[in-house]
Amino acid sequence: MYRYIFLVLAASVFLWGINEARGTSSKYTQGEEKELLTIAHRGASGYAPENTFASFDKAIRMKAGYIEFDIQRSRDGKLVVIHDPSVDRTTNGRGPVSGKSLKELQELDAGSWFSEEFSNEKIPSFEELLNRYAGKVNLLIELKNPAVYPGIEEETADMLKKYHLDRQPKDAVIVQSFDKRSVKNFHKIMPSVSTGVLVKFRPLGIPGWQLKEIARYADFVNPNKGLMNEQLVKQIHRLGMKTIPYTANDRETVSYLQSIGVDGMISNYPDYILELSNKRNEK
User: Fold this and answer.
1) Which of 83, 107, 183, 209 is at a distance of 20 to 30 A from 218, taking alpha carbons?
2) Closest CA to 23 of 260, 210, 218
């Protein structure tokens, strides 16, 4: 009798180990039909100048689920929406973002570099963006170069509180950065808001120990699309996190990423992701 019970228990443990190794203990399963998170990278930046209201409005008209944008700090301490450390590439000005006041930044033309059609576009402040979009679309916020802007995590959290975004469903706002210390700091300040770690392309991939460490304070791991494969998606899901890789700018990449089970994608062309989602829904 005791030998029979022992054999049953041993078999159960063995089968549990197989399932664990396969990742079936995760709440996510490979091939699962789930709604893809559609994130418009700096807005619908394939169609309008990045990080401008024209680009964000275009993304919303396309019915993107999220707008993604970058925030930095002006010389006079205002959070502003711009990607590069300087204004050279995306405006008619020159010099570092941190060397100009908000007024000086907003006097620049942030649209003509893309097309004369957008010559009146300006660099938005973070507060202007929240005033325009809070509660109307989900937000993916990247803290850009946070080491250059000490305290930017607290300032971001204070602004989200001002617009009551700390009370939204957890994934309605995601704050991410390549800087893991900054993400960890933001998580301590505002644990009610989801956090994500961006990962640049690296030939050897992301080591398992690093994923485990990230899982202590982040809800998302968002790698360069070139790092993505089925095994990495499973590893991330087993640790209870989600993944929305960047930047899926062609239909082939969008289709591949969907096939390996990612939770969403960041794209300059959010309509590519939406097209795929619509095709799946029509089946």
Assistant:
1) 83
2) 260
Q: Is 164 a catalytic residue?
A: no
CB 152 within 8 A of CB 179: no
Is the separation of the CB atoms in 142 and 82 below 8 Å? Answer: no
Prediction pTM value = 0.88
Percentage of the chain lying above the pLDDT 70 cut = 87
pLDDT tens for 39-71 read 999 999 999 999 999 999 999 999 999 999 999
Judge residue 7's burial from the number of C-beta atoms within 10 Å of its C-beta, 0-12 exposed, 13-18 middle, 19 or more buried.
Answer: exposed
Q: Is residue 21 one of the residues assigned to a domain?
A: no
Number of domains in the chain: 1
Q: What's the token pair of residue 152?
A: 């930017």
Q: Residue type for 80, please?
A: V
41 is catalytic: yes
- Rounded distance, CA 7 to CA 56, Å? 61
Range of the domain at 256: 34-282
- CATH number of the domain where residue 113 is located: 3.20.20.190
